[in-house]
Amino acid sequence: MTDRVFTSEELEKMGRRTVELLTEAVESGDKEGARKLAEQMYGEFSYMHDLYRDWMAGLMDYIYKNHGEESLYQALRGVVAVFPRTARANSEKVDFRHRVQALASVLRGHLQPMMLEEDDEKVCIKMEPCGSGQRLLEAGGYEPPRNLTIIQKPHPMTWGLTDFPIYCTHSPVMEILSIEKLGYPGVVALPAEKVARESCRYCVYKNPQDIPQEVYTRVGKQKSMQR
User: Fold this and answer.
1) In 68-188, where does DSSP find H-type helix?
2) Is the omega angle on the peptide bond into residue 129 within 30 degrees of 0, that is, cis?
3) Is 159 domain-assigned?
4) Of 27, 59, 83, 106, which sees the most CB atoms within 10 A?
């Protein structure tokens, strides 16, 4: 074959996971090679993260515009239902420290710096900026030509708020399903004054009874007084 562009070695290397190449570079002491591979892996993951975020936002917008708010709500309940099942299992087996560590691990998947704060009631995590809803808005997702929906009608999936970016509705729905399964939200979002214009905070409470009543009221639920 005389028209080949790649060598067999190049093709083999492209077929390997970047993390394997990075590990090899670290073990061999190739600091510069490891740095470049770390940046490459970040870029690869960031691209896929944003691609799937944009696809999901587009699907949510299509459902809302063509089938209405109730169809979107029911679709989200079906799609994110796996989270409360996981949260329920974890709440029965995992202590507060590990639940906070698990939340931090999940949010690190958004590839943004995070600020963590603890008080007597809870630990809260804030991405700077929010790696999903805020970055989607800042990337122009709600402007032409995409024109994703900013929901103006209050609904439990908007925490009862108006001017609510459609992609962010998954967060209230996750709280709703967690309340239905656990009796309380395993992760409580403290929304920014203007959702997606700045980052929300995500909190794990040490004692679920300390979660404010408003957290339940905003999604149409009642707080149980049982611990």
Assistant:
1) 69-79, 82-93, 96-108, 133-138, 170-182
2) yes
3) yes
4) 83
